[in-house]
Amino acid sequence: QVRLVESGGGLVQAGGSLRLSCLASGSISNISSMGWHRQAPGKERESVAVITSLRTTNYAYSVKDRFTISRDNAKNTVYLQMNSLKPEDTAVYSCWIRLGGVSIWGQGTQVTVSS
After folding, report:
1. What is the C-alpha to C-alpha distance for residues 34 and 70, in angstroms, rounded to an integer?
2. Could you give the percent of the chain with pLDDT greater than 70?
3. Nearest Cα to Cα of residue 99 among 8, 55, 35, 19
4. What is the DSSP letter of 26?
């Protein structure tokens, strides 16, 4: 059974930075894509960033040039470096991995940006 655990969320002032981590544990081999979504109160869940097995990345327009996704395959971990945070970035951030054609999700971590 594969489990994802996020960490690194919290409260930060606007303009600050946070780094989210997502560790995948269990029976894991050949993770393809990894990524982060977020969901703000009253809003639909949206894709924030994706990184493929070839390390190709894709970002939501709203976070481009501020957020950076990366992965460490040896540690089965995906990261999201968030800089220049804005109050509108406040949301629950959830990581996911694509493994054997199946998407597996973490529970999420709260990020709150104060103005």
Report:
1. 9
2. 100
3. 35
4. S
